[in-house]
Automatic annotation (TrEMBL), chain A:
Compartments, as annotated in UniProt: Cell inner membrane; Cell membrane
NCBIfam families given in the database record: HEQRo_perm_3TM
TM ranges: 12-41, 53-76, 184-204
Main location: membrane
Family statement: Belongs to the binding-protein-dependent transport system permease family. HisMQ subfamily.
GO CC annotations, alphabetized: ATP-binding cassette (ABC) transporter complex
Name used for this protein in its record: Amino acid ABC transporter permease
Automatic annotation (TrEMBL), chain B:
Domain ABC transmembrane type-1: 21-209
NCBIfam families per record: HEQRo_perm_3TM
InterPro entries for the chain: AA_ABC_transptr_permease_3TM (IPR010065), ArtM/GltK/GlnP/TcyL/YhdX-like (IPR043429), MetI-like (IPR000515), MetI-like_sf (IPR035906)
Organism: Phyllobacterium myrsinacearum
TM regions (residue ranges): 20-44, 51-77, 83-103, 190-217
GO cellular component terms, semicolon-separated: ATP-binding cassette (ABC) transporter complex
PROSITE patterns per record: ABC_TM1 (PS50928)
Compartmental location: Cell inner membrane; Cell membrane
One MF annotation (Gene Ontology) recorded for this entry: transmembrane transporter activity
Record-given protein name: ABC transporter permease
Similarity annotation: Belongs to the binding-protein-dependent transport system permease family. HisMQ subfamily.
Length: 217, 227
């Protein structure tokens, strides 16, 4: 079964894995920054901003990431911007993760008791001070487990960058499979690589959750 | 930027779009219905007294939840055809979706089951309810009710993931769009249109799930969970 599959193929797959990790990190960093602004907009005191960001989140969460990738890939070409595949895939993943992370973090900010906001206001803190000094330190504790959990989704979803021609792990596996046609072996290895990245994150997320809930049991 | 949008070029294809949307919904409904049953069975198996059964189901769930859907589809579709098992694309897609949705459902339902207070089960035993009755009325239905919002959003994510089946040339909404954009060369417009259609399907499903919840969970208000 393994004839034809050489160490070179494995190295090629490992290169794909590196790009998967790079794209995931990029998506998380960029999406985290953008998601922070989405969270701010979603909890803003200005109604139009809350509405606008809600529409943004609903659109991104209501359409497949695959379609978002296509729209960006063809859309950027249409307006004459030539981005390298890594950047195009990165932009797609950033938009996607900003909506989900923004929504996760909004939930965490809103789960901080209302009285904390009120007390901070009574102390005449500015809105920014309230957020940075009072709310965020508490919200961040709650936000860590779901954020790590979302990172698993993020790593898995980078596989969709393969459809716009970015050679990450899934694309690399497809390329090799097209020449060797040993799908069980090749996609099995690809799946094992993904598992090696995602499973530790899943376990970490679960243990963080358990630690967070210790006081409530 | 001097791009002329031309959505009119897509008008002659409205029936194809509709057909694609129907296929997407069909796939989702079948996969969710079968996946729900498998997921519930797996969740029960996770509480089994047999260690090997708990382990086997646990491995299945962790593998599916920690690998991408697109790799699962390629593994199943190309893998089965490489050993001579060819099947229609629709069937292969739904098969992969069932395996995927089953694992996620199992994990969600298990979380709901863990939240059932042991005292309730003891009370049911004291009242002389059979094992089956306890499972159905005390453990299963209340836990599904409790995790219903998480379940439905997982199902909607699954509906969105049907777009990935276009990669094995299934004729779902995305597959149809891929064809149409190659006839019309209006790729940007095509994908914007189907993004809108996906959005509509998302809301249709949410509405449908809400209606189902109203029908099957008469006690929902007491739990205070939004549906």
């Amino acid at each position: 079964m393994t004839d034809g599959f050489t160490i070179n193929h494995l190295v090629y797959l490992l290169h794909g894995l590196v790009w998967t990790v790079v794209l995931s990190a990029l998506a998380f960093a960029l999406g985290g920054v953008a998601g922070f602004f989405v969270m701010l907009a979603r909890t803003s005191t200005m109604r139009w901003l809350r509405r606008l960001s809600l529409v943004y989140v609903q659109i991104i969460q209501g359409t497949p990431l695959l379609i978002l990738m296509f729209v960006i890939y063809f859309g950027l070409g249409v307006i004459g911007i030539e981005l390298p595949p890594l950047m195009a895939a990165g932009v797609g993943m950033m938009i996607y993760s900003s909506a989900y992370l923004g929504e996760i973090w909004r939930g965490c900010v809103e789960s901080v008791p209302r009285t904390q906001f009120e007390a901070a206001e009574c102390l005449a803190l500015t809105r920014w001070q309230v957020l940075v000094d009072v709310i965020l330190p508490q919200a961040m504790r709650i936000a860590t487990p779901p954020t790590v959990g979302f990172m698993v989704q993020l790593v898995k979803n980078t596989s969709l960058a393969s459809v716009v021609g970015f050679v990450e792990l899934t694309r690399a596996a497809q390329v090799i499979n097209n020449s060797l046609f040993q799908p069980f072996l090749i996609f099995g290895i690809a799946a094992a690589f993904y598992f090696c990245v995602c499973y530790p994150l899943s376990v970490w997320s679960r243990s963080l959750e358990r630690k967070l809930n210790v006081g409530r049991r | 930027m001097n791009y002329q949008f031309d959505f009119e070029a897509l008008l002659p294809y409205w029936q194809s779009f509709l057909q694609g949307a129907v296929t997407t919904i069909e796939m989702t409904v079948v996969a969710v219905a079968v996946g729900l049953v498998i997921g519930v069975l797996c969740a029960i198996a996770r509480r089994s007294a047999y260690l090997w059964l708990r382990l086997a189901v646990g491995i299945y769930i962790e593998i599916v939840r920690n690998t991408p859907f697109i790799v699962q589809i390629f593994f199943i579709f190309f893998g089965l055809s490489s050993i001579g098992l060819t099947m229609p694309v629709f069937f292969a897609s739904v098969f992969a979706m069932v395996i995927n949705v089953g694992a996620y459902t199992a994990e969600i339902v298990r979380a709901g089951m863990e939240a059932v207070h042991p005292g309730q089960i003891e009370a049911a035993e004291a009242l002389g309810l059979s094992r089956f009755q306890i499972y159905r009325d005390i453990i299963l239905m209340p836990s599904i009710e409790r995790v219903y919002p998480a379940l439905t959003s997982q199902f909607i994510l699954m509906m969105l993931s049907t777009s990935i089946t276009s990669q094995i040339s299934a004729e779902d909404l995305t597959g149809v769009a891929n064809n149409i954009q190659s006839y019309t060369f209006r790729s940007f417009e095509t994908y914007i249109v189907i993004a809108a259609i996906y959005l509509v399907i998302t809301y249709l499903l949410r509405f449908g799930f809400h209606a189902i919840a109203l029908a099957i969970f008469p006690r929902r208000r007491k739990l205070g969970t939004p549906l």
